[in-house]
């Protein structure tokens, strides 16, 4: 269940890509780090 929530959070953050050019997310326990950069509106 926790894994599904993490995936949902990542997808939700992907929607933020429209508002922010790039961002980095690290989980509280430091095990999951996601870095997203947007180029021409596409998440990389």
TrEMBL record:
This is Uncharacterized protein. It comes from Segatella copri.
